[in-house]
Each structure stands twice: as C-alpha cells, then as structure tokens.
Specification:
TIM Barrel, DNA polymerase, domain 1, 7-stranded mixed beta sheet, 10 helices, globular, binds adenosine monophosphate, binds zinc ion, binds fe (iii) ion
Amino acid sequence: MRIDLHTHSVVSDGTETPAQVMASAAAAGLDIVALTDHDTMVGVEAAQARATEIGIGFVPGIEISCSDHGVSIHLLSYWHDLADAEVDAMLAKTRAARVDRAKEIVGKIAIDYPVTWEQVLARSGGAVTVGRPHIADALVDQGVVPTRDAAFQQILAGNSRYYVPHYAPEVTAAVRTMRRAGGVTVFAHPGADARGRVVPTSVIEKMADAGLAGLEVDHRDHSPQQRERLTGVAAQLGLIRTGASDYHGTGKLNRLGENLTTQQAFEALRAARP
Ligand code: AMP
Ligand code: ZN
Ligand code: FE
Ligand code: FE
C-alpha cells in the first residue's frame, strides 16, 4: 500500500486543481492520498469526487497554521467535520490575517523590487488561502528570481528583512478544536529547521496531552538524524509515525509518494478518530 497524507492544490499554494492532484496521485501509483491545503477545506469535495471516479482512496484533510510563543507550527488534521462552525471561524481569522500580512510583505519588497499587490493577487488566481508562494510567483513573472525556490532562499526567507509573520491560533487550542470536531491531528514536519525555528520536545508533549495523534517523521525537510530523534519522541509519547510528500505540484521539488505512511500507521490513525 502506498499512502501519502500531505498534498496541496491551487486552493492554497499548490499548482494543480484538487481533481488534478488526485489524477497525479493515481499516476504516481498511490493507493490512498489526503488533500491538506493550508487553512481551508474548500478543495476537499472536488478531490473526493475525482478520487472516487478514479478509484483511489481519499482522506479529507487540512494543514492548519498554528503558533507556539511566536514559533510557526503546521498541524495536519484528517476526517474532521467539514461544516464545524468553530473550525470555520478559526480558519477564517487566519486566512484574513494572511491577506493583510501578504500585503505588508509585498509593500516592503516593493521598495527594492518591481512588484505590486495587484500582481500578487492576479497570480494567486482562485486561491482561497494566500501565502508567500504567490508572492514568489509574481517575483518570477517580474524576472526578479528564476523560481519559487530561489525566492524562498532569500527575499521570502523567514530571516529576510521583508518577512512579516501572521496571526495563527495557539497550537494546543487548535489540537483540541480539531479533536472536538472529530479530527485526527498530526504535527507536520516538526523538525524542519531549515525553514525557521522549530519547537522543543516539551511542546510536542503539550500537544500530545491535548490529543495529538501523530508525528510526520518521514518528510523531505528532515535529515536522517532528525528522523531518528523524532521516531524516538513518537515512541516515547505514544504518537503514530507518519510520512508524506507535502506535494505542491510544480511549486516545490517534493514528488508524490517520496515519503509514505505505512498501512499499520494508517490503521492506527483511523482508530484514533474520536
Ligand atoms: P506561508 O504559508 O505564506 O508562510 O508560506 C510558506 C509556504 O511556502 C509553505 O507552505 C511551503 O510549502 C512554501 N515553501 C516554503 N519553502 C519553499 C520553497 N523553497 N519553494 C517553494 N515553496 C516553499
Ligand atoms: Zn504550502
Ligand atoms: Fe507545512
Ligand atoms: Fe504542506
């Protein structure tokens, strides 16, 4: 069984529609795939419909922007109620903050480079959740950088002088909210220190106490040493070890199926549904 539980579509910052992601997943030989756009579930229905047509297993999901004392944390949630009002309000607040924050970042960059908010907005197309990758696309259009990746190496990096953070819910509150809404939560790329600060094990403990089910150990942004450490943390805290690609279409190097979740871990996630 090839199971990949972390992918993005154009609804957030991927480059394929939700339906196209499902077709790509089947072409990549996956048996089960989750759609986990940032801070929105808008793509889930279309993805589910296409997955059913193609005959591939589908898991409805999301990647929620959270924070712990100013450190950004990404929380995956699966199978929660798509119509939950509290979840909806939490996500709407983050998405609105993301727009203001993207405008601020563009304002700062515009002092030094030829880019406008209108270009970014046009480039983000139908995205429900706006992010730095859309700013990267505008910078590529303007010839400032060759690729999204190049934009993130410098201008859009977390330590760049143009960087602005955005509001995000406190992580244990988000874990509780998603669990109450029927979700199973997994801490996404917990050791990805190349993209910014990461949290100490004490925060993972706090999340486990709040009802966290799993740790995404096998992810491109983790070194072998980090995978080993996180495997130990998962075992110690009784968390399910998952793996996934974090596919963004052509927006990132990550390829579908490059990291996988075992069938046993998947069954454990399913059994963890509240
Ligand atoms: P934001 O959500 O606005 O803070 O932007 C972060 C998003 O940018 C993450 O979801 C990443 O998938 C994406 N990202 C981070 N680094 C890169 C990169 N080097 N190339 C393309 N996308 C990236
Ligand atoms: Zn992303
Ligand atoms: Fe993430
Ligand atoms: Fe992601």
